[in-house]
């Protein structure tokens, strides 16, 4: 039902050429010929950690869908157990200064594009979704998750602080009180807990079921004129988008200061080691 050829995702932006990246394709876009709904699949093995290339390719894919006036977008993962492990810690550990700067600016850009896209957006969360993975999910309008996975903004557990726009997105999704509890604890919710707290909207039994439920959600907008729909969405979301747009440089400088702090570097080193030791 979904043809893989209708939309061509540009995999090499100028940014990537500048950093001499390979042309690996970390994002697949397939569009349902009948409904016009696109499935955007992250496919950066093993855990879809968000490095500069994946972030840039996602942003390009979402902008292409906007230009092509797609009817709806479902964001999902090619992995069977991870939606996205969040930001690629290797981008922040002993970083190249020009690259890490570009990494953060690209992340800001991706969030503003996804959070403010005119088309209906659904996250089909078919695996764990910590930190940046949770941000991507929350930036969509609707979330459907498979059982036995976890989702949340766990930054404080790592000794780091979620940026203000991550916080705003969570507050807008689950409300002040629940966001405060979740953020301060760095809480990772199970699927069942996420449903209870309103972090997700539905539980699906399989990826196919999640896609079917997402199609059904998007289908509801077939009879709603697109312009009033988009304006209503943006009335709710544009304040936070504009805040980041106006403070992009400040936000970047705050990130660079934290990332270049030797204490942060030590923390990231220990965290990377702990991830590797989990396997041993
Ligand atoms: C200084 C920064 C200041 C401000 C920024 C604030 C914002 C931060 C937002 C973020 O997104 S920070 C990233 C937070 N992410 C996490 O805490 C998730 C860490 N990963 C996991 O918990 C698990 O990997 C998983 C539950 C997602 C999946 O578990 P599993 O399927 O068992 O896979 P493995 O743990 O074996 O991982 C496979 C492989 O991938 C590496 N890896 C995992 N996550 C990341 C990551 N976020 N960045 C880079 N690499 C990651 C892991 O080390 C393994 O590598 P091997 O070489 O051992 O195969």
TrEMBL record:
CDD domains the UniProt entry points to: crotonase-like
Gene Ontology CC annotations of this record: mitochondrial matrix
MF GO annotations: delta(3)-delta(2)-enoyl-CoA isomerase activity
InterPro entries documented for this protein: ClpP/crotonase-like_dom_sf (IPR029045), Enoyl-CoA_hydra/iso (IPR001753)
Protein source organism: Agrilus planipennis
Domain of life of the organism encoding this protein: Eukaryota
SUPFAM superfamilies found in the cross-reference section: ClpP/crotonase
A UniProt-annotated Pfam family: ECH_1
Name by which UniProt lists this protein: Enoyl-CoA delta isomerase 1, mitochondrial
UniProt pathway annotation: Lipid metabolism; fatty acid beta-oxidation
Parts of the chain that traverse the membrane: none
Function: Key enzyme of fatty acid beta-oxidation. Able to isomerize both 3-cis (3Z) and 3-trans (3E) double bonds into the 2-trans (2E) form in a range of enoyl-CoA species, with a preference for (3Z)-enoyl-CoAs over (3E)-enoyl-CoAs. The catalytic efficiency of this enzyme is not affected by the fatty acyl chain length.
BP GO annotations: fatty acid beta-oxidation
């Amino acid at each position: 039902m979904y043809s893989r050829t209708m939309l061509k995702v540009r995999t090499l932006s100028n940014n990537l050429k500048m950093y001499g990246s390979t042309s690996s394709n970390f994002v697949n876009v397939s569009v349902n010929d009948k409904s016009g709904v696109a499935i955007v699949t992250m496919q950066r093995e093993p855990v879809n950690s968000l490095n500069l290339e994946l972030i840039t390719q996602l942003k390009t894919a979402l902008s292409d869908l906007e230009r092509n006036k797609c009817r709806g977008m479902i964001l999902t993962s090619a992995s069977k157990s991870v939606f996205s492990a969040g930001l690629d810690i290797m981008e922040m550990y002993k970083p190249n200064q020009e690259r890490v700067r570009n990494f953060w600016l690209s992340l800001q850009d991706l969030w503003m594009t996804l959070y403010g896209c005119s088309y209906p957006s659904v996250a089909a969360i078919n695996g764990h979704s910590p930190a940046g993975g949770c941000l991507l999910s929350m930036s969509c309008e609707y979330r459907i998750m498979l059982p036995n996975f976890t989702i949340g903004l766990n930054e404080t557990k790592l000794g780091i602080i979620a940026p203000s726009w991550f916080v705003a997105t969570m507050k807008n999704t689950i409300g002040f009180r629940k966001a405060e509890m979740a953020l301060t604890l760095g809480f990772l919710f199970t699927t069942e807990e996420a449903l209870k707290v309103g972090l997700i909207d539905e539980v699906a039994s399989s990826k196919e079921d999640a896609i079917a439920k997402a199609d059904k959600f998007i289908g509801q907008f077939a009879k709603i004129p697109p312009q009033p729909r988009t304006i209503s969405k943006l009335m709710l979301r544009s304040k936070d988008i504009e805040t980041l747009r106006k403070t992009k440089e400040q936000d970047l400088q705050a990130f660079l200061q934290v990332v270049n702090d030797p204490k942060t570097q030590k923390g990231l080193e220990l965290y990377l080691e702990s991830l590797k030791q989990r396997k041993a």
